[in-house]
Amino acid sequence: MPTILGQNQYGKAENRVVKITRDGATHHIKDLNVSVALSGDMDEVHYSGSNAHVLPTDTTKNTVYAFAKEHGIESAEQFGIHLARHFVTSQEPITTARIRIEEYEWERIAASDANSRFIGADEVRHSFVRKGQETRVTQITYDGENWEVISGLKDLIVMNSTNSEFWGYVKDKYTTLQEAYDRILATQVSGRWRFNWTDDEQRMPNWEKSYEQTRKHMLQAFAETYSLSLQQTLYQMGSRIINNRSEIDEVRFSLPNKHHFLVDLEPFGLKNDNEVYYAADRPYGLIEATILRDGAEQLIPVDMTNL
Amino acid sequence: MPTILGQNQYGKAENRVVKITRDGATHHIKDLNVSVALSGDMDEVHYSGSNAHVLPTDTTKNTVYAFAKEHGIESAEQFGIHLARHFVTSQEPITTARIRIEEYEWERIAASDANSRFIGADEVRHSFVRKGQETRVTQITYDGENWEVISGLKDLIVMNSTNSEFWGYVKDKYTTLQEAYDRILATQVSGRWRFNWTDDEQRMPNWEKSYEQTRKHMLQAFAETYSLSLQQTLYQMGSRIINNRSEIDEVRFSLPNKHHFLVDLEPFGLKNDNEVYYAADRPYGLIEATILRDGAEQLIPVDMTNL
Amino acid sequence: MPTILGQNQYGKAENRVVKITRDGATHHIKDLNVSVALSGDMDEVHYSGSNAHVLPTDTTKNTVYAFAKEHGIESAEQFGIHLARHFVTSQEPITTARIRIEEYEWERIAASDANSRFIGADEVRHSFVRKGQETRVTQITYDGENWEVISGLKDLIVMNSTNSEFWGYVKDKYTTLQEAYDRILATQVSGRWRFNWTDDEQRMPNWEKSYEQTRKHMLQAFAETYSLSLQQTLYQMGSRIINNRSEIDEVRFSLPNKHHFLVDLEPFGLKNDNEVYYAADRPYGLIEATILRDGAEQLIPVDMTNL
Amino acid sequence: MPTILGQNQYGKAENRVVKITRDGATHHIKDLNVSVALSGDMDEVHYSGSNAHVLPTDTTKNTVYAFAKEHGIESAEQFGIHLARHFVTSQEPITTARIRIEEYEWERIAASDANSRFIGADEVRHSFVRKGQETRVTQITYDGENWEVISGLKDLIVMNSTNSEFWGYVKDKYTTLQEAYDRILATQVSGRWRFNWTDDEQRMPNWEKSYEQTRKHMLQAFAETYSLSLQQTLYQMGSRIINNRSEIDEVRFSLPNKHHFLVDLEPFGLKNDNEVYYAADRPYGLIEATILRDGAEQLIPVDMTNL
What does it catalyze (chains A, B, C, D) (predicted)? Predict the structure, then answer.
């Protein structure tokens, strides 16, 4: 046979599971999009079409919903760990499971004054509005021995309206850009961070608190860095995380430079004193980098932050 | 000539304008997407291609940016009023201008404790994160005499995890649905409301406060209605607005019923006690209606809430 | 009660139905996205939540699938007519039904030479690739007496690389645009045309042939018009349809002017002789108009072409 | 310093360049979306913000447009090779350049009969409609010595309406799926293939012919495989390419199983004889694999086919 099979994986992608937990009249939501990818001894299904080693993707879907009941959803990470362990330990041919999860956050709708007097509470406890800001993501990979947990977020749009410059760069025959000493810096953050928790003997991180703190440090670094380049801001965001979160060893960002161009108002006899900008769609600068704890291995794939 | 020209309009769509206002070290953002549509004596450009009556769409774009400087952007509505008046009053052939605006909200990034001590404030004043919840919209139409202002929002996703039933409906030979006595009710709100401000002699509403209050009443009505049908909830949302906001005479909603189906876990020996749901994409129920102040005219077009 | 109910409708939207017809070894596909909207005596479901007049949206979905079997899908228009008639005639409270359908076209995959010798045919007869060009659309409305059929297409992207000019326009203080004597003209066509078939006594058009011919005339008019404005091209596209298709009385187009800007290469010592263009996303000119057969009524809503 | 910089790259993404070539009255289009990513000695811009080694992303954009004039666009691959070589050889700090290109195909609009008589040709030679089927992609990477060219396509939707089965799979406690002996097999192909052309001394492939033939073999393998699993079909698609195209050593596919579920019409007294299907959106099976020429190295990243 002149051709051979290389890396392969399969599973059910984008299982949308919503879990409601009722604590008396107070309800809680977990709203996830779960994708399962399994790999192992799968040559025959590719070569001959024999499904003797194949747990159907429909079954992996059923397992997601059943586990939401059996284990609850404490966090996306914890839920993914339950799933990955199950597939690897219960199915002989499966040697590796990778679970990817997107999480959508909801916040409570505040009750009206009249209503809150009536129900003796300041919030209706079963009514929610989707927060709609970043999408939280995680990827759990398990090979039967070791865990790799990479979490992060995407689609978080941030802007500094000052404290950003860009000058002193290389000029070649195709360079026309003017240097800028006060520009808008805006980006749509896609970030991933890898935990150093890799085995069941270690104490597991508090996934929810870790996310909240990592996000906070990242945003503060963005806000507080006086920026000479988006690369510098990116590095500050990553190193702020590494320095403050001991559970994280590696961070990777993909930061599109969402250009805001100062509009030339002079033809209309007006002076644009850093006030009126045109927000451009395409093209955009795209700055990507990994930041590592000294001594840590680089494991987050180059392309992962753009998925 | 066997064919004639009917309704027509033209202009530049989706002008992305960002206005930064500096109040000392504290910056403010207005982030709009502005679309201009002009109509009037435009037969010749269609029949012969003569542009003698045509102000270029490029000029309407320039006007948007110039007006952001000349008039500022107090609110999307006020900005649209400036633009519409300008086109109708300054261009002889233009008899009607319609300005549509989307607005994206930003919130401030909270500073780190260390930083806030340093700058003596609890927020960095030029750093923002896009809120990312609903998109606020407005449409201003001016014919040289009268104004029509229709504002609203889209893409606001809400959910009640209980207090919703659906039963007592018509059954025909194609009906298989089981009645439900405790279901999730979720929708992605697209709403528009028409103001009764129509001429320059009237006192103009406070557009920003009106939006904030209308949104609040709408969300509270959603949360507080014990729902026997999504139509009933929709009507409560609309009438709550009419009853509380005297500046508004008409409301229209388009509410997709974002189905959350209870997953059947019995094959796995599990009982699903209103806990685990599958969030479906398509198809969805689609409930649309207009609610009017008694005596008001119905003017919001049927299709407008889906644009 | 200070508020009253205005226009309202409900139904199941985006029912994705695929119908395979087997003609021996040769298969045929119809691939539709069907949305049902019903209206009539529906006050109570809004006021009190009583569903006594409500045929569930789930039932309207079931009806779509059952009718695909019972009536087949000869054309999207004919299928919509079956559905609309059914809801209005079988449900006492329903007085009007509106069916909207998107259709996706598929073409056959050509077989390999070796295979075609073997099976004695030049095509594998059950293998298809989605054409992926325009989406065909139709809207059927029935009130128990009269029919309104509006068909069309969206997302058909066309370009003339020459034979387009733009000059002789109005200049005001905000005008900076240079006149153009040879430019690219490109647009993403959204078009709708209304048939003059309105009642069961009339001979019904051949919907498939009408679509094919209308599309052809529209494209030819686009290609063959030497354009002084996009409005002129639009008018030619519409009048060509009216003049060639007697079954159509009204056409409306929404044509975004997809700007292709000539890139200034002079800073690099290069001359750009109408060769290298930057294809812009936003903003775009937006040209919209209705063209009517003389004497016909204008019935296609202003906003419909943008849905 | 406790943190260090890992893999990093930067450049301008999504430069939309349209190149018109005039061959007398006959025009030709190349329509590309070009993304540049450069890497090399870039530590300082991350650590201190010094841009002394940074060619601005704006310059990389200018270079794309200038090269479209200077070198023309013979093929996306050839254009990417010109760009990658330029950045690596002309900028001391740049050691690697990666160019990603999407290409959109256009076809000619056929002229009307009347017109073709007039111009003595059967086609208007400057009028085009975007084909709108798959998007063709390529990625060129150059490190100053070796080339890696990975081409492919995405968003090509295909369907077999018969000749697909699925049975004989593993059943565990979460398995409810029924075996299928005649099902629809549909997928949205994302495929990438790596060329064994790696250095300037080798004869370069004919990129356009290679694409056309690779696509043809892939589609024929999809159509002609009697499928017992989507994995088997995927493997056939890949090995058909390897066996027929000597310039390609590695292929990777990501194939979502776009489920078409047979609708249960029995409650309505109807028999569904593989005629009426519901086309589902989410979840979907996702089958991914690499196929290699025996002895070839596996170099296409796992995640690349999903970008």
Answer: urate + O2 + H2O = 5-hydroxyisourate + H2O2
From its phi and psi, is residue C155 left (phi > 0), alpha (psi between -120 and 50) or beta? left
Distance to chain A for C146, nearest Cα, Å: 43
Q: Which residue carries 């997809």 as its tokens?
A: C258
Task: Check CB contact of D276 with chain C, cutoff 8 Å.
Answer: yes
- A286 HSE (CA, 13 A, CB side): 24
Is C50's Cβ below 8 Å from some Cβ in B?
yes
Q: Catalytic: which of D86, D259, D290, D305?
A: D259
Q: What is the DSSP string of C233-302?
A: HHHHHHHHHHHH-TTEEEEEEEEEE--EEEP--GGGT---SS-EEEE--SSEEEEEEEEEETT----S-T
* Cα–chain center distance at D271: 41
Q: How far is CA C62 from the centre of its chain?
A: 25
Smallest Cα–Cα separation from C88: which of C49, C44, C37, C47?
C37
The dihedrals phi and psi of C291, each to the nearest 5 degrees, come to -120, 135
- Which of B173, B255, B302 to mutate against chain C (most C CBs within 10 Å)? B302
CB burial of residue A10 (10 Å; 0-12, 13-18, 19+): buried
Task: Please give the structure tokens belonging to residue C276.
Answer: 């290298």
Length of chain D: 307
Residue A3 has pLDDT above 90, yes or no: yes
pLDDT in tens, C242-301: 999 999 999 999 999 999 999 999 999 999 999 999 999 999 999 999 999 999 999 999
The sign of the CA dihedral B142, B148, B149, B154 is negative
What are B164's strand-pairing partners?
B227
Nearest to D282 among A7, A11, A14 (CB): A14
Q: What is the pLDDT of residue C121?
A: 47
Q: Active-site residue among B12, B30, B154, B258?
A: B12
ipTM score for this prediction: 0.95
Evaluate whether B244 touches B238 at the Cβ level (below 8 Å): no
Token pair listed for B35: 């679309």
Cα A54–chain centre separation: 30
- Please judge whether A174 and C282 are an interchain contact, meaning their C-beta atoms are less than 8 angstroms apart: no
The length of chain C in residues reads: 307
Beta-ladder partners of A96: A39
C-beta of residue B253 within 8 angstroms of C-beta of residue B231:
no
Which neighbouring-strand residues pair with A164? Answer: A227
Q: Which residue of B has its CA nearest to A223?
A: B127
Tell me which of C268, C270, C276 to substitute to probe the interface with A (most A C-beta atoms closer than 10 Å).
C268
Residue D282 CB coordination number (10 Å): 18
Cα–Cα distance for residue pair A128/B160, rounded to 1 Å: 6
Chain B interface test: which of A220, A225, A244 (most B C-beta within 10 Å): A220
**Residue C214 CA neighbour count, 13 Å, CB half:** 28
Note whether C157 contacts D124, CB cutoff 8 Å. no
Q: Which has the closest alpha carbon to A115: B242, B292, B253, B216? A: B216
How would you write A119-174 as a 3-class SS string? Answer: HCCCEEEEEEEECCCCEEEEEEEECCCCEEEEEEEEEEEEEECCCECECCCCCCCC
The predicted-structure confidence for A11-31, as pLDDT tens digits, reads as follows 999 999 999 999 999 999 999
Whether B292 and C37 lie within 8 Å, measured CB to CB: no
Q: How far is A56 from chain B (nearest CA, A)?
A: 16
Instruction: Write down the mean pLDDT value for chain D.
Output: 95
Cβ atoms within 10 A of the Cβ of D170, count?
Answer: 16
* Chain B residues in contact with D267 (beta carbon < 8 A): 176
Task: Say how many C-beta atoms besides its own lie within 10 A of residue C246's C-beta.
Answer: 10
Tell me if residue B71 is catalytic.
Answer: no
* Residue listed under structure tokens 């959803």: A73
